[in-house]
């Protein structure tokens, strides 16, 4: 089930012949295979892409539903529409349910998200609501603007959220159901947090940068204080997580203060780290936001004039994590070419080897954002996926520092107690909502984080 397939299927009726769909899938798989052979560096990404809808069906049990939401351009080549392809254990063919237009979506998320109407537009759509009525587990993949919305947290009847009624698994593609992942045995964990963003290579310190107790937003730090704030909850977060992990006898590596450098991160490439946690500032610079880019000396962001091989690198250079020493970039006109700048971009991550990485947690702001393409979001998640990572926990919005600390510690407590990744996150969100008499019950505290491809531990 790919976007290419969606476009081709538009020439058929909703009840198109199964044999025709199968032949189209066969053509696309052949093309994908040839492409993957030419780009050997990303061969690990090809794993599972030759999966047909029938093979997806074979992985589903009674009560399971697989939903692939696809976007495509209409006949005028301007308007964009969204359809859902649905398969369950008894399907004779994928069922197509037209959902909405992009114009309808934008009208509900333009200023602030109208969660109730959005839920009706997606989960309440006639056909889709019937398909999931008796479901227990829903495996879904989104496309376009829906990649930027936590549709697994939308409200339904009464005061319930849909994730309370069903077990929802967000996937990069429903083909993930066909991929077998090894259980974690004798794995290693790597934690980054409590980072010192001041200049490592000089004695210069950022006097106006103080611990931030409110948000992990890099852009707020830059605009209000002219540098990346230290995060008061970040160090406590990784220290508490470390205690939970080491109690289980698991090997845990911690990078904090001035040790959490970009160099140390890149040195992990090709290693046997199975879980990685990065508690720091995250940022996505939208295309055309030249005022932010120029004012803060973000010369690492590439442009069309940059001599590169792949134009995708330009897009991936606009999403990044701040590592130790990151303030050097803001307060110096030049950094020696042999030195890292403390800014870890999605482009740089995509060139590393993390094929052994089962889970990466991006405990920072807006780490799930990026430019929207037919193939998905081009940002940090694409960087890690191209590097070979499996499950990614990431945020769709700015996140509160203290609420995030509580959520993350509880997530790892659940994980270390044997719960699945999905259940660990869901139970941590429920815990956060209830503490301190509902202090963090507002979705802005707990619904920012989504989990991608969280099928196995």
Could you explain the architecture of this structure?
With 457 residues, the chain is α/β, with parallel strands linked by helices. It folds into two domains: 3-178, no CATH class; 188-452, Rossmann fold. The chain has 19 helices and 16 strands. The chain has helices at residues 3-9, 18-38, 43-46, 53-58, 102-109, 115-122, 128-132, 162-165, 218-225, 232-247, 262-266, 290-295, 312-316, 327-331, 346-350, 380-387, 401-416, 421-438, 443-446, and strands at residues 64-73, 80-88, 95-101, 137-141, 167-170, 188-195, 251-257, 273-279, 282-284, 319-322, 343-345, 359-363, 370-373, 376-379, 391-395, 449-452. β4, α8 and β5 form a beta-alpha-beta unit. α1 runs antiparallel to α2, α10 runs parallel beside α17 (401-416) and α17 (401-416) packs across α18 (421-438). It is globular and about 60 Å long. The relative contact order is 0.11.
Topology of helices and strands:
Elements: H1 3-9, H2 18-38, H3 43-46, H4 53-58, E1 64-73, E2 80-88, E3 95-101, H5 102-109, H6 115-122, H7 128-132, E4 137-141, H8 162-165, E5 167-170, E6 188-195, H9 218-225, H10 232-247, E7 251-257, H11 262-266, E8 273-279, E9 282-284, H12 290-295, H13 312-316, E10 319-322, H14 327-331, E11 343-345, H15 346-350, E12 359-363, E13 370-373, E14 376-379, H16 380-387, E15 391-395, H17 401-416, H18 421-438, H19 443-446, E16 449-452
Parallel strand pairs: 1-4, 4-5, 6-7, 6-8, 8-12, 12-15
Antiparallel strand pairs: 1-2, 2-3, 9-10, 10-11, 13-14, 15-16
Helix pairs in contact: 1-2, 10-17, 17-18
């Amino acid at each position: 089930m790919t976007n290419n397939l969606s476009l081709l299927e538009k020439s058929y009726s909703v009840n198109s012949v199964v044999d025709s769909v199968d032949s189209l899938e066969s053509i696309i798989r052949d093309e994908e295979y040839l492409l993957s052979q030419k780009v050997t560096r990303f061969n690990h990404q090809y794993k599972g892409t030759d999966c047909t809808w029938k093979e997806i069906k074979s992985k589903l049990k009674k009560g399971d539903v697989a939903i692939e939401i696809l976007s495509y351009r209409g006949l005028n080549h301007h308007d964009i529409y969204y359809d859902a392809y649905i398969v369950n254990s008894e399907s004779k063919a994928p069922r197509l349910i037209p959902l909405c237009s992009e114009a309808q979506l934008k009208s509900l998320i333009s200023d602030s998200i109208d969660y109730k109407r959005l839920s009706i537009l997606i989960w309440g759509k006639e056909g889709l609501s019937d398909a999931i009525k008796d479901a227990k587990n829903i495996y879904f993949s989104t496309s376009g603007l829906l990649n930027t919305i936590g549709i697994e947290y939308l409200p339904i009847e009464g005061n319930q959220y849909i994730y309370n009624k069903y077990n929802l698994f967000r996937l990069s593609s429903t083909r993930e159901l066909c991929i077998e992942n090894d259980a974690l045995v004798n794995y290693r964990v790597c934690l980054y947090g409590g980072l010192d963003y001041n200049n490592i290579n000089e004695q210069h310190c950022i006097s106006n940068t103080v611990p931030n107790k409110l948000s992990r937003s890099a852009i707020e730090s830059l605009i209000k204080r002219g540098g990346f704030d230290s995060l008061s909850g970040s160090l406590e977060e990784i220290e508490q997580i470390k205690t939970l992990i080491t109690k289980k006898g698991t090997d845990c590596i911690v990078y904090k203060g001035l040790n959490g450098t970009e160099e140390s991160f890149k040195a992990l490439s090709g290693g046997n780290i199975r879980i990685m946690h990065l508690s720091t500032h995250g940022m996505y610079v939208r295309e055309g936001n030249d005022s932010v880019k120029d004012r803060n000396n973000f010369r690492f962001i590439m442009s069309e004039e940059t001599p590169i091989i792949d134009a995708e690198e330009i897009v991936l250079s606009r999403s990044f994590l701040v590592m130790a020493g990151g303030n050097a970039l803001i307060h110096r006109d030049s950094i020696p070419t042999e030195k890292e700048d403390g800014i870890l971009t999605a482009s740089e991550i995509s060139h590393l080897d993390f094929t052994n990485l089962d889970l990466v947690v991006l405990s920072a702001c807006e780490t799930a954002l990026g430019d929207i393409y037919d193939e998905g979001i081009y940002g940090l998640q694409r960087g890690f996926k191209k590097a070979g990572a499996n499950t990614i926990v990431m945020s769709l919005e700015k996140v509160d520092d203290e609420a995030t600390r509580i959520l993350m510690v509880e997530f790892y407590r659940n994980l270390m107690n044997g719960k699945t990744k999905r259940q660990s996150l869901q139970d941590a969100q429920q815990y956060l909502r209830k503490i301190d008499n509902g202090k963090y019950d507002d979705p802005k505290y707990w619904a920012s984080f989504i989990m991608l491809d969280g099928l196995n531990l």
